[in-house]
Amino acid sequence: MQRKSGTCCATSETISVFSKKLSSMKFEDKVKWLREKKYKGRETEEFLHDVKRVANGEAVEYLVGQVDFCGAKIDLSLHPMIPRPETEHWVRGVIEEIKKCESAYTIRVLDLFSGSGCVGLAILKNIPETYVDMIELDPKLKEQIEISVDRNVIRRTRARVVTGDTWEGASSRYDYITAVPPYVPPSMKEEVMKELHQEEPLSFFDKDDGYFYHKQVLSRAKEFLKEGGVAYLEFDTTQRTEIESLAQGYGWENYSFLKDPYGNECVIRLVK
Fold first, then answer.
1. What is the CA 103 to chain-centroid distance, rounded?
2. d(CA 47, CA 106)
3. How far is the C-alpha of 171 from the C-alpha of 177, rounded, in Å?
């Protein structure tokens, strides 16, 4: 089947949705979380200094140094992209699905665009019989993920971390593939950067129209999935129509959509 070409949807709506994701926690909640997580309830001079930093726009998650994600501790000391509650919502569902998988063999998972490693680490933490390959383009984030592997007391033999672009380092066929690719087109960089703290730009920005990496996943995922294997691909909620068109163009017939906590479809579930 011929692939259908993607179209750019760099709109103010996309920026609005993106901003909402970045500002899901109120200032008062940030201060409370900072006090409890970093200062164990104490209001010291250092705490008051950190409150000022939060008020000036610094990410409270970076000041605390880690976040919880589906029960896994995600280290943020090297400032990867901060895991989002929208992603955590659907990953919980994926974990439950994998737990129900009746397999006589080890379950193998490939996590693309790993960033902080939150998706792969959550799967490893919650499902002891899984082995996860995590691929991330930024070399410094390999070290970041390995810090979290140790922090969660996960055997290094279960977590293989590779520095590479999309499929570089994928070793064989997998039962599951997860992917949270960059989706913000370069044309929106100036506006989106106003909403960022010190987060890694590579984690957000696509190479062309917001679909470059989605196309890479949709075009090749079948090569790396076992028969009956499942891939999960996250996208911005404004991209849903185009993502379905691309999936059909690349020959995917068995697919469905997962929703974020607000009821918006944000992930396409693809079955080989």
1. 26
2. 46
3. 13
Task: Please list the pLDDT of the chain residue by residue as tens digits (272 residues).
Answer: 333 333 334 444 544 444 445 445 788 999 999 999 999 999 999 999 999 998 988 889 999 999 999 999 999 999 888 899 999 999 999 999 999 886 667 899 999 999 999 999 999 999 998 999 999 988 989 999 999 999 999 999 999 999 999 999 998 899 999 999 987 656 555 665 555 555 544 555 556 667 889 999 999 999 999 999 999 999 988 899 999 999 999 999 999 999 999 999 999 999 99
Residue 235: other Cβ atoms inside 10 A:
24
Domains of the chain, earliest start first: 12-23+77-271 (3.40.50.150)
- Strands 255-259 and 130-136 turn out to be unpaired
Give me 84's structure tokens.
Answer: 């989002």
Give me the phi and psi of 89, to 5 degrees please.
-60, -50
